[in-house]
Amino acid sequence: MSKFSAFTLIELLICIAIIAILSALSYPNYVSFITHTRRVEAIHTLINAQLIQSSHHLLHPSYTTDKSLLELMDTDYYQFSILSADETTYLLEAAAQKGSQQEKDTDSCITLRVDQDDNYSDKNEQPNPHCW
């Protein structure tokens, strides 16, 4: 008579329970990581726009208000804006899209702003190293 070895139903249920617990513990960290990564992409876009603004200002008497020239294309997660631009100043903004996962980011980090003097701020117009 041959004897088969296999997992019992209880052993399989224990494995599934362990996987479910580990998944439940790791999912919030995963969401936080993805939110942070998308914020970093928005920051990269704003810094790139700053570089283009500086180049434009060297060749022209003022900063540009043309979003396409600054390569500020809205994404599924952020809406990019030029809040102001004139001969001496500009203010760029990345705001979380309504209804996107980024709206659940740290309250003050849902809006990122940068100006011509490299002042990086959050939605409260305060410097926030956590966001940047």
Topology pattern, helix = H, strand = E:
HEEEE
What is the architecture at the second tier of CATH?
A: 2-Layer Sandwich
CATH superfamily descriptor? Glycoprotein, Type 4 Pilin
Number of helices: 1
Please identify the structural class as seen in this structure.
Answer: alpha+beta
Q: What can be said about the biggest beta sheet?
A: 4 strands, antiparallel
Average of per-residue pLDDT values = 91
Number of distinct beta strands:
4
CATH class designation: Alpha Beta
**Total domain modules:** 1
Shape: elongated
Q: How far is it from the N-terminal to the C-terminal residue, by CA?
A: 69 Å
Approximate helicity band: 25-40%
> Stretches where pLDDT falls below 50 for ≥5 residues?
none
Estimated radius of gyration? 23 Å
Strand content: 15-25%
Instruction: Record the strand order, biggest sheet.
Output: 1-2-3-4
**CATH third-level topology:** Glycoprotein, Type 4 Pilin
What would you note in describing this structure?
With 132 residues, this protein is of the alpha+beta class. It has a single domain (9-121), classed as 2-Layer Sandwich (Glycoprotein, Type 4 Pilin). 39% of the residues lie in helices and 17% in strands. It has one helix at residues 9-59, and strands at 78-85, 90-96, 111-115, 120-121. Strands 1-2-3-4 form a 4-stranded antiparallel beta sheet, with helices on one face. The model has no long low-confidence stretch (mean pLDDT 91).
